Amino acid sequence: MKPSIFIVDDDKNIQKMLEFFIRKENLGTIAGIQDSGADAAEEILFVQPDIVLLDLLLPGKDGIHVLEEIMQGGFQGKVIMISQVDDAQMMEKAYERGIMFYINKPLNAIEVVSVISNVAKLVHLQKSMDTIQGALLGIQAAPSVNQNVLAERFRKICSDIGIWGMKGIDELRKIIFTILEYQKVEKSYQMKEIYEKVAGELYGTEQLASNKKALEQRVRRIMLKALSNIAQMGAEDYYDPVFADYANLLFDFGQVRAEMRHLKDPAAEPGRISSKKFIEGFLLRMTAS
Question: How far apart are CA 247 and CA 254, in angstroms?
Answer without folding.
Answer: 10
